[in-house]
Amino acid sequence: MTDIETAAAPAPSAHRVTPPYEHLVFTEDGPIARITLNRPLARNALSIRLSDELIHALERVRDSTSAKVLVIQGAGGTFCAGDDITEMHRWGNANEVMRRVTGYQHMADTLEQLDKVTVARVDGYAVGGGLEITMACDFVVAAASAKWGMPEVDVGITPGWGGTTRMARLIGRRMTKEVNLLGALHPAARAAQLGLWNRVVADELLDTAVDELVGVLLSKNQQAVRQLKFIIDSGIEADLKTAQAFEKLSAGLTGAVNGAWQVADADQYAGIVGFRDKNSLWQHRRGLARDLWTDGPVAE
């Protein structure tokens, strides 16, 4: 019996983490949260421990009511070299690997669905899982010397949490096949040209560029920013009519939160108050509806 059959590590989970973190630095300064992957000697590869900590930190950001922007970066001059290949023998059998990938997908989905704007600050390498993190972010700003790619094919494995799915939605099927099937490492400029990343700047200007972007984002109406992120992300996965419905509802919500919330034939909480107090409005409505058509489609 092999190690793979007997020593499977549990799937990634925030439940095993109690700060302080070992391989991650988390800060929250007013409206800006920052996550720094902190395994520089391993190029910030996502070890089993770091994966748990990253999910935990992302859920902290999700639950924060003060953070408006999240910046994700790597320590030691590199972003993230992806999953820690040296630990993959601990992932277990095929079913246990699928469970682990489910945890990674939860991590990426949590990042993507945050009601905060997310910015990946990329220097050094963003490959494999590191590249998948950037694809779940709203903005990616990279140093000119950064490199990226999906080299999993040369290890004999396939991506599990965005390397084919999110990538194909960002740059199309043909380019996604090129990136994944060849496994090359590309310069940062090509990521920007393909629309995979937003902006590439001189290495020494990376922090300035990120700070400028964050400053602009924080200057906006934050409710409008949240709505825009939601309708764009939701609409891209829907048919046109459904996507337009998201836009329409967002327009109505915008009017409401900007003060024009009163609609003449809306309850304005009267229905909720009626349920709570069991008042005459509640009794009237339930009295009319409770037994209506309960005998089925054919009236006796």
Task: Detail the topology: elements first, then pairings.
Layout: H1 3-6, E1 24-29, E2 32-37, H2 48-63, E3 69-74, H3 94-112, E4 117-122, E5 125-127, H4 129-135, E6 139-143, E7 147-149, H5 165-171, H6 173-182, E8 186-187, H7 188-194, E9 199-201, H8 206-218, H9 222-235, H10 240-257, H11 270-277, H12 280-289
Parallel strand pairs: 2-3, 3-4, 4-6, 5-7, 6-9
Antiparallel strand pairs: 1-2, 7-8
Helix pairs in contact: 2-3, 5-6, 9-10, 11-12
Report on this model:
The chain is of the alpha/beta class and 300 residues long. The protein has two domains: 3-218, Alpha-Beta Complex (2-enoyl-CoA Hydratase, Chain A, domain 1), CATH 3.90.226.10; 222-257, no CATH class. Helix content is 44%, strand content 13%. It is built from twelve helices and nine strands. It has helices at 3-6, 48-63, 94-112, 129-135, 165-171, 173-182, 188-194, 206-218, 222-235, 240-257, 270-277, 280-289; strands at 24-29, 32-37, 69-74, 117-122, 125-127, 139-143, 147-149, 186-187, 199-201. The strands form two sheets. It has a six-stranded mixed sheet with strand order 1-2-3-4-6-9, sandwiched between helices. A three-stranded mixed sheet has the order 5-7-8. Strand 2 (32-37), helix 2 (48-63) and strand 3 form a beta-alpha-beta unit. Helix 11 (270-277) packs across helix 12 (280-289). The longest helix has 19 residues, at 94-112. It is globular and about 75 Å long.
Helical/strand content category: alpha/beta
Q: Averaged pLDDT, please?
A: 95
Give the biggest beta sheet: 6 strands, mixed
How much of the residues is beta strand, in percent? Answer: 5-15%
Please list the strands of the largest sheet in the order they lie side by side: 1-2-3-4-6-9
Radius of gyration: 24 Å
How many distinct folded domains? 2
Q: Tell me how many strands there are.
A: 9
Termini separation = 70 Å
The helicity comes to 40-55%
CATH class bucket of the largest domain: Alpha Beta
> How do the SSEs run, as a string of H and E?
HEEHEHEEHEEHHEHEHHHHH
The CATH topology label of the largest domain is 2-enoyl-CoA Hydratase, Chain A, domain 1
| Full CATH superfamily name of the largest domain | 2-enoyl-CoA Hydratase, Chain A, domain 1
Q: If helices are DSSP runs of H or I spanning 4 or more residues, what is the number of helices?
A: 12
